[in-house]
Amino acid sequence: MDSSYWANLLLTINRFLGIFPSGRRGFLRWIHSLWCLFLLLYIWIGSICKLKEFRLDMPTIEKLLYLMEFPGNMSTIAILVYYAVLNSPRSYEVELQIHRLIKGLEAKAIRIVYKKQGQRTVYLMVAVIVFHGLCTVMDIVYNYNFDFWTSFYSNSVYNLPALMMSLGILQYALPLHLLCLLLEQMRISIEDLKLRQRPSRDITKLDAGYESAFAVLVDAGGGTSLLIEEMRSTCNRIDLIHKQLLSRFGLFLLLNMINSLISFCVELYLLFDFFDNPQWEESMLLAYRLLWLVMHGGRIWFILAVNEQILEQKCNLCQLINELEVCSSHLERTINRFLLQLQTSIDQPLEACGIVTLDTLSLGGFIGVLMAIVIFLIQIGLGNKSLMGVALNRSNWVYI
Q: What are phi and psi of 356, to 5 degrees?
């Protein structure tokens, strides 16, 4: 099966979950829009009811951080549903622009790009569905002992929004992977050009015709300059497409990372609290918390990593272009323009809503915030235990 089959299957799943435009007009579009709004309203009502039903005895700040996951889910899902209901042609323009760029490659390169994209799509789609399926099973087994309606309600509030958000991230990540594959093919082309620039072994530097033969190989008829200029234009369009994707998904990615960071902090603190006073009969709850830690931490890392791959490809392009032989001022100017454009793009990585730099170097900031919040929660927990101990001791005092 080719990549288009898996891409269409993933889009069908996204449309069924109400987080991708139907691509239709007329009556079918309105039916899909109503279905999207129904799912959004269902998740919102379920989340609000869950907030009202929450009765666990814990400090106020801890309870606030724990419950922030629900409004976070509601807002991020609302953004996806908004674009699905809007059904703007811009949702497909980006994909069309990427495919136009791919069509400009050689036939063999096109097959390689689509094959790798199909493999990537299958891998991510299966990983997301299997992971959230496992979370659903854990929720049913641990909490409700196969009580269908109660577990259905719980999974509708927790695992359904989580699945929708994960698939929403894939809507951003898969087009970026295509852009990364395009840059990879450009790198391969420059490597081939570098090999073609080598003079024949029959000609040595002592031969009178070495310099002329070398010049012909390096920039025969200006072909090298034309190829570099085409790559520069393609790279510029890749940057524009990347910005278009980020303009659509920027707020969604930002809210997603904030929501995942807060949830990760709370789950990590609860994990610490579990080992502080272990109750091994609750080991199923421990496994469930570990799954949610993997999910929230994986989302933050994945969002940053997919952008990092593009930066890495651009760095590789810079290195290879610097290794090209230059024999004319025109070729030198063309290469310098390309290098300047790449260097500017590398030095100014894109940001989500101008707040979070989409680079794995930002993980240091996330870890700093994570440790600060977890230590703060631990201190509150230890303080409450100390106060409870004092109150218990006072209750055992004997007054004379």
A: -110, 120
